[in-house]
Specification:
Layout lengths: L1 H21 L6 H6 L6 H12 L2 H14 L5 H23 L5 H9 L3 H32 L3 H50 L3 H7 L12 H17 L1 H7 L5 H32 L9 H9 L4 H39 L11 H25 L3 H25 L5 H22 L5 H20 L5 H11 L4 E2 L4 E2 L10
C-alpha cells in the first residue's frame, strides 16, 4: 500500500500547488467568480465535465449499475442530457447576460424582488450539493488509509476549501482540468477495462447476470422519468452549472464546449454501469451497494494503479465539491449578504473600485460555508438521498420561473414569485409526508409552480417595458461586465486558454 499512499498524497499536494498558482490570476471580482470570462473550448469543456461528474455520479453510478445493470446509467444519462440541452438551447443566451448568479438573471428579467426567494432556494441547493460531494470522500479515504469517516470528510473538505478560497474560480478551473484528466484516465482507461476483464469479459457478464441487467429499462419507467425531471432540468438552472457557463470567453465556446462535455457524460454513465455490473459478477453479495466502487478498486487493481484510480475518484468528488462551494458562496455573498448590507444603508458597487473588498468577502464566504458543509457531511451519510433533496428544491422551486423568463414574454414578477413559493412549499411538504426519496414531491411541486406562474402572470400587469428593454439588451450582449468595468465582448477573447 506504500505506493498507493505516495500516489494519493502526491496528487493532493499537486492539487494544492495548482490552486496556489491560480491565486495569482484572481485580481478582480470577475477573475475570482467567473475566471475573467476567458476560457477557451478545451479548458471550458474539461472543467464543465469535471463539475457535473462528481462523487454521486461516480460512486452512485457504480452502485446503480451493481443494483440494476445497464439501466443504472440513467441517473448520469439524465445529467448528460441536461448539459446537452443547456448547451444547445440556452448557454449562448446565458453567457451574453454577463451576470454572476441565477438570481441576477431573474432580477434582470422580472425586477429586483425576484432574487430574494430564488437566492435562498439556490443557496440551499448549492450547499447541499457541496455536502454530498464531501460525504463521498469517506469512501476513498476509508479504502486507502482506514481512517474514521469524520476524519476522511475533514481531510478532503479542508483541501477543497483551501484551494477554492485561494484563487476562486481560477484555482478551481485549473485544478478541475487536472482532475478531469486524472478522472478520465483512472475510471475510463484503467478501471473500466480491468473490471470487465476480471469479470471474464462481456460474454461472461451476459452469462452470469440476470437478463434484466442487460436492459436499459429494468430500473423502471417512473424512475427514469424522475431522473429526467430532477437531473436533466436541474442541469438547466443550477448556479454551479451557470457559473461555469459564465466563464466561457464567447457564446460559441459555451455552446460547443458544453456539448462536448455532455457527450462525455453519456459515455461516463455507461462506463459506471458496466463497472457496477462487473462488480456484481465478482462480488455478488455485498451488504451495501454503496461500497461497490471501493470493493472493485480494492480487489481488482494492483498496488500503485489502485492509488491512481482512487485519486480519480477523489478528482470527481473534489471538482463537484469545489464548484458547488464557490456557487454557494457566490449566492450567499452576492444575493443574500449584499441585500442585507443594502438594507443597512450600505450599497456596494462592483464597478467602482471595491474589487478588493469583494474578493475578500467571497473568500470569507467560501471558508465559512466550507466549514458548514464539512460539519453537515459528518452528520449525513446517504449521498443519493442528499442529492435528491437538493435537486427537488432546485427544480421544484426555480425551473418554471427561470425557463418562463427565458421563453415566455408574458411572465412577470408576481407570477415568478408565486411559482417559486408554490413549488418550494409543495416540495418541502411532500418530502416531509411522503419521504425524501419519493417521486411525488417533484411531480406535484412542478405542477404547482407551473399553475401558479401562468395563472398569476396572466391575472396581473405585464412586466414593465423598461425592464424588458434592459433584458433584451443584455440578451443581445450589450452589457458591461460586472467586476471588471469593461464592456462585454461576447464574440472575442482577450485571453485564450
Amino acid at each position: 500500500m506504500g505506493v498507493d499512499y505516495v500516489v494519493i498524497v502526491g496528487y493532493l499536494l499537486g492539487i494544492v500547488a495548482v490552486g496556489w498558482w491560480g491565486k495569482r490570476r484572481a485580481r478582480s471580482t470577475s477573475d475570482f467568480l467567473v475566471a475573467g470570462r476567458r476560457l477557451g473550448p478545451a479548458m471550458y469543456s474539461g472543467t464543465m465535465a469535471a463539475v457535473v461528474i462528481g462523487g454521486a455520479s461516480t460512486i452512485g453510478g457504480v452502485r446503480l449499475g451493481y443494483t440494476y445493470g445497464l439501466s443504472g446509467a440513467w441517473m448520469v444519462f439524465a445529467i448528460g442530457f441536461g448539459l446537452l440541452a443547456l448547451s444547445i438551447c440556452f448557454s449562448a443566451r446565458i453567457a451574453r447576460l454577463r451576470v454572476y448568479t441565477v438570481a441576477d438573471m431573474l432580477s434582470l428579467r422580472y425586477g429586483d424582488s425576484a432574487s430574494v426567494i430564488s437566492g435562498l432556494v439556490m443557496w440551499i441547493y448549492t450547499l447541499m450539493l457541496a455536502v454530498t460531494s464531501t460525504i463521498a470522500y469517506a469512501t476513498v479515504f476509508d479504502v486507502l488509509f482506514d481512517v474514521p469517516r469524520w476524519a476522511a470528510v475533514v481531510i478532503g473538505g479542508t483541501i477543497v476549501v483551501g484551494y477554492s478560497a485561494l484563487g476562486g474560480m481560477w484555482s478551481i478551473t485549473l485544478t478541475d482540468m487536472v482532475q478531469f484528466v486524472v478522472k478520465s484516465i483512472g475510471v475510463l482507461v484503467v478501471l473500466l477495462p480491468v473490471a470487465v476483464v476480471k469479470a471474464g469479459g462481456f460474454s461472461e457478464l451476459s452469462a452470469q447476470l440476470p437478463d434484466s441487467y442487460l436492459s436499459f429499462g429494468s430500473i423502471g419507467g417512473e424512475s427514469i422519468f424522475t431522473y429526467v425531471l430532477i437531473y436533466t432540468f436541474g442541469m438547466l438552472i443550477g448556479q454551479d452549472i451557470w457559473q461555469r457557463v459564465f466563464t466561457a470567453r464567447s457564446d460559441r465556446v459555451a455552446s460547443w464546449g458544453g456539448t462536448v462535455a455532455g457527450l462525455y457524460c453519456l459515455f461516463y454513465a455507461l462506463a459506471g454501469a458496466v463497472i457496477g455490473m462487473a462488480t456484481k459478477v465478482l462480488h455478488p453479495h455485498l451488504a451495501d451497494a454503496d461500497s461497490a466502487f471501493a470493493t472493485i478498486v480494492k480487489s481488482a487493481l494492483p498496488t500503485g494503479v489502485k492509488g491512481l484510480v482512487l485519486a480519480a475518484a477523489l478528482s470527481a468528488m473534489m471538482s463537484t465539491a469545489s464548484g458547488a462551494l464557490i456557487a454557494s458562496a457566490t449566492v450567499a455573498n452576492n444575493d443574500i449578504w449584499h441585500r442585507l448590507r443594502a438594507l443597512g444603508g450600505r450599497t456596494v458597487h462592483r464597478q467602482t473600485g471595491e474589487d478588493h473588498d469583494e474578493i475578500a468577502s467571497n473568500r470569507i464566504a467560501i471558508i465559512i460555508l466550507g466549514a458548514v458543509s464539512i460539519a453537515l457531511a459528518c452528520l449525513l451519510d446517504d449521498v443519493l438521498a442528499a442529492l435528491t433533496v437538493a435537486y427537488n428544491l432546485l427544480v421544484g422551486g426555480l425551473l418554471v420561473p427561470i425557463l418562463g423568463g427565458l421563453l415566455w414574454k408574458r411572465g412577470n414578477l408576481p407570477g415568478a414569485l408565486a411559482a417559486m413559493t408554490a413549488g418550494s412549499v409543495t416540495v418541502i411538504a411532500l418530502m416531509a409526508t411522503e419521504g425524501m426519496l419519493a417521486n411525488e414531491p417533484i411531480y406535484y411541486g412542478l405542477a404547482a409552480s407551473l399553475v401558479a406562474h401562468v395563472a398569476v402572470s396572466l391575472s396581473t400587469r405585464p412586466t414593465d417595458a423598461r425592464v424588458l428593454d434592459q433584458w433584451r439588451r443584455r440578451l443581445a450582449g450589450q452589457a458591461t461586465d460586472p467586476g471588471s468595468g469593461r464592456a462585454a465582448q461576447p464574440k472575442t477573447a482577450a485571453t485564450s486558454l
